[in-house]
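Researcher: Please translate sequence to structure tokens.
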Amino acid sequence: MIGFLEGGLRKPRVEQTKPGIYQAIIKTLSGVGYTVYVDQKVRDRWEEKFENQARISINLFIYTDVRENAIDLYGFEDTGSLTIFKKLISVKGVGPKTALLITGRFTPVEIELALGTRSIKFFEAVAGIGKKTAAAVIDKLGKK
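Model: Translation complete:
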């Protein structure tokens, strides 16, 4: 499994796959390129760095999603975001891309606070999450 990537990124290599989810090709120092999904916050931070340079250095903590027909990598700039992502995908009905939408919109602290207060509306604010899925997240991860 891949747990961390260090490498570089060129500006044209970041593409939006759906609103709030981006795909980037990270080229490691050894020359291998990995396609990684990242959220809106990560992409926005990269865009700020691209204002002054055409290539930037990248360090990402990686979640490797292995399925029958695909192996996808999801990248996070800190372990807090990776940890909350893993919690979210443990909930039935929340896949990696939905969890990435949540981590792209809120900080880990905001998510933990919403879980602590059992705020269904907080999670319903994310595109693709309805009342049933939001309730499932609260029921499994919320403070009782």
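Researcher: Any highlights?
Model: The mean pLDDT is 91.
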